[in-house]
Amino acid sequence: MKKSADKNLGMDRQISRRDVLHGISALTAGAITVGSVSTSSVLAKQIIAGEVSSVPPVNNSYPPSYTGMRGNHDGAFEVAHQLAREGRENWGKVEKPDPVIVDLVIVGGGISGLSAAHFYLKDNPEANIIILDNHDDFGGHAKRNEFQVEDRTLIGYGGSSFLVQPNSYSKIVKGLLDDLGVDIKGFEKSFDQGFYKRHGLRAGLHFNKKKWNADLTVPFSGPFFEYLPMATTSLTAEESVAQMPISSAAKKQFHHLLTIEQDQIPNIKADAKEKYLSSISYRDFLSKHLDITEPEVFEVLQDLAFDAGMGIEAVDAYFALSYSGLPGWYAAGLPDDTQEYDPLIHRFPDGNASIARLLVRLMVPAVAPGNGMEDIVTANFDYSKLDQANSPVRIRLNSTVTKVQHQGSSQSSKLVNISYVQNGQAYQIQARGCVLACNNSIIPYLCPEMPETQKQALADQVKQPILITNVVVRNWHAWKNLGIGAVLSPGSYHIGAQLDYPVSIGDYSSSSGPEQPVTVTMFRYPHMNNQGLTAKEQYRLARHELMSTSFETIERNVRTQLSSLLGSAGFDPAKDIIGITVNRWAHGYAYDKHSHALFDKLYANDDDERYPHMRARKPFGRITVANADSAASAMLEAAVEQAHRAVKELQDS
């Protein structure tokens, strides 16, 4: 029966994919399911305390065109896991490929690492810099996915998505964008803001048959979808709720939640609302103050504060209302938000991968022709030029750093020894300074000579896991037929799915009509619902789930979910899906200080010295730390600002 169902889904079709089990063995993988967790208590304790292992690397000439499992791909993490989990210290005979002492080595080629190189080079034009990264591509979470469909190239983003409110950026970040030739106003033309309305594409909530006893999509105008300029539905809130496959009592309560405008907590004064709402979960807000009691209402909303990577019982009410856009703003007595925000249009087709590409091309001109934002999207990058001896900046991929240590005392040393492993061979470089632009959590293992208090602060950072799946389909007639452009899917494997953003820039054009192929982006934020775990405990367990799930399992979920969503409108997953790339980020978003109010103490000043991230980023001799973790913020601007700080600290030391 399963074979027949798989054939109907197209699991036997030859699409672009690499079908292997990624992560730990299937025996261990079977112990965990996410959402409703069934984890043996011993294994759960092991995972919460630490983690597990994986498989070997592949060499590529052009990594963005790789499909299958990307993000934290095989070959990128094994050496680091051997170092941190197994305590391995020896990788054999050490070679020294760079006989000269370099000015700066940067560990990590993401936005922060690339920005650090840029800032250092601006102040020291004669400097020589080597960037080491464990992945087969640069950019870190700013990941580019490419697909070739006949004579057409489709480009998608696999991580860091867009520039958020760029008009409010600091001088440091705006200066970097100016150096790169990024014209903020140019996005007003490149993002087709009328696309969704022109094609009648609305937002909706999708319910699958397995969970809700019906495959059903309900058109829905706000909340949930205010980040997209979607066409609006003619349905009232009451009419939308009436279509939902939930009980009459649940419909009544859901409609009440969507329409109530009276302050339900009048005893909390206006200036104390935010503090109070930050102290209770969104679920408690619903049950205590809005009299929501029906289980189905909670089930629909359970995972819709998805960006926090937790369910509504673990997300504070203020974050859920203000950031996630869940219903109840006026019921909480919160004021009208009169602040004007930039529309969320400042994006390249590959997300912030274009920012990474602009940085690389500026520092390593031989890698690609052109200059400015108009031609970067289709610029042909030659990865063989990334690490050439005559270049002032060299980017060395597939290189996992295993040790960073001063030559002599950290107080007086002028040199740092950096050891790394590439393709099983151990190497060492000497540098006058080192910027650690990698994850905080690995630094205590890379740099054991650091003070114990700093290592503890670094280890405190636990990133939020994320899965972003790009699916190429032959056309989007089914989406057009349904009149849907984006959905959230309570109870489904991927919490959301949407047509690719309508962004055309330079020589690149997005799909303009339903007869053309398009990328569908699906996203999953794995977590453990209703388990009484802290955010960090949930993230550790969810990381295990991501690393122990096979590509085949993810593919099956993709095909099943798109069939459930689009099957009634003529979509055939066996025929219409022609490519899948899964971007697995076991270490995804930086642990954001503002989204965990139920677990961590918040201070009035973001740079309060009592925050662990402030203690973690202290300079240590000729070594500094620069990454999004250093700001406890997953935003691109935070990564750039921390790079600037770290380089200045190094130059001032």
Give a structural overview:
With 653 residues, the protein is of the alpha/beta class. It has a domain of 89 residues. The protein is 30% helix and 16% strand. It contains 25 helices and 19 strands. The strands form four sheets. The chain has an eight-stranded mixed beta sheet. Strands 9-4-3-13-19 form a five-stranded parallel beta sheet, with helices on one face. β5 and β6 form a beta hairpin. α3 crosses α21 and α5 crosses α25. The protein is globular, with a radius of gyration of 24 Å.
Task: Please count the helical segments.
Answer: 25
Report the span from N to C terminus.
Answer: 67 Å
Strand content: 15-25%
Structural class: alpha/beta
Estimated radius of gyration: 24 Å
Fraction of helical residues: 25-40%
Shape: globular
Number of strands: 19
Main sheet properties: 8 strands, mixed
Strands across the major sheet, in which order? Answer: 1-18-14-17-16-15-7-8
Low-confidence runs of at least 5 consecutive residues:
18-60
Provide mean pLDDT, rounded. Answer: 91
